[in-house]
């Protein structure tokens, strides 16, 4: 299974990035950086939520109904003339549900690293969140996930499946950063220095590429 960051490098991902950038009035490169950081964090938050039976059941219900992936079939219409208010309102609800009281801190951290305001990050994420849910809904159908018990495996696979504990810890720390951007520098330094990895491949490579402007 391809990871969520592979999506951004696909033709569909490029359409999403340019569409979100145009709809929010943001630079395409900055939008790309925000989404490269934010999508894995949102996925990790969903994985956390889905670790309880109630959370998994709620997410499964959303993916089976409203967020079944059909939004991906009409991206041209979605982005032409700007994203309508209903989609943005839906995005705001998704972020509030997924991130809860972590939302402001996550937006601040990503804004600091992407070089834009947290309110601009919020605007990008509100536009992108319903699309991300659509991607999950489509993956749910394609992988035959029809119960909440299998949902954790799907989310784990999209997060990189075999990614190391360090990489998962990286996402956890962003979620718990409370707006402190220095935590990303600390964790990145630990990971790169400790394992002698280069920022090149996998989930961590994609994340660090977004954080520090590398590819």
Could you characterize what this model shows?
With 215 residues, the chain is mainly alpha-helical. Helix content is 73%, strand content 0%. It has helices at 4-9, 11-24, 28-49, 53-64, 75-79, 85-99, 103-114, 118-142, 148-158, 165-175, 182-195, 202-212. Helix 3 crosses helix 8 and helix 3 (28-49) crosses helix 10. It is globular and about 40 Å long. Residues 190-201 and 208-215 have low confidence and may be disordered.
Q: Which structural category do the helix and sheet elements fall into?
A: mainly alpha
Radius of gyration: 16 Å
Poorly predicted runs are 190-201, 208-215
The percentage helix is over 70%
Task: Please provide the ordered H/E string of secondary-structure elements.
Answer: HHHHHHHHHHHH
Tell me about the largest β-sheet: none
Number of helices: 12
Q: How many angstroms separate the termini?
A: 22 Å
Number of strands: 0
Strand fraction: under 5%
Average per-residue pLDDT, rounded, comes to 80
Shape: globular
Provide a concise account of the structure shown:
By secondary structure, the chain is mostly helical. 73% of the residues lie in helices and 0% in strands.
Task: Present the secondary structure layout.
Layout: H1 4-9, H2 11-24, H3 28-49, H4 53-64, H5 75-79, H6 85-99, H7 103-114, H8 118-142, H9 148-158, H10 165-175, H11 182-195, H12 202-212
């Amino acid at each position: 299974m391809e990871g969520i960051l592979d999506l951004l490098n696909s033709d569909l991902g490029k359409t999403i990035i340019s569409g979100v950038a145009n709809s929010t009035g943001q630079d395409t490169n900055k939008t790309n950086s925000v989404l490269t950081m934010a999508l894995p964090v949102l996925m990790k938050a969903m994985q956390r939520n889905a670790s309880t039976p109630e959370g998994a059941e709620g997410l499964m219900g959303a993916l089976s109904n409203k967020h079944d992936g059909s939004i991906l079939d009409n991206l041209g219409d979605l982005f032409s003339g700007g994203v309508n208010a209903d989609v943005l309102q839906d995005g705001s609800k998704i972020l509030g549900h997924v991130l809860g009281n972590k939302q402001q801190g996550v937006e601040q951290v990503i804004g600091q690293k992407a070089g834009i305001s947290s309110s601009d990050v919020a605007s990008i994420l509100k536009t992108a969140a319903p699309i991300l849910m659509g991607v999950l809904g489509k993956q749910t159908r394609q992988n035959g996930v029809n119960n909440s018990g299998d949902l954790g495996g799907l989310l784990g696979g999209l997060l990189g499946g075999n990614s190391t504990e360090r990489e998962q810890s990286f996402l956890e720390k962003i979620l718990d950063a409370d707006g402190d951007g220095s935590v990303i520098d600390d964790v990145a330094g630990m990971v790169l220095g400790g394992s002698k990895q280069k920022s090149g491949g996998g989930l961590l490579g994609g994340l660090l590429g977004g954080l520090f402007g590398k590819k």
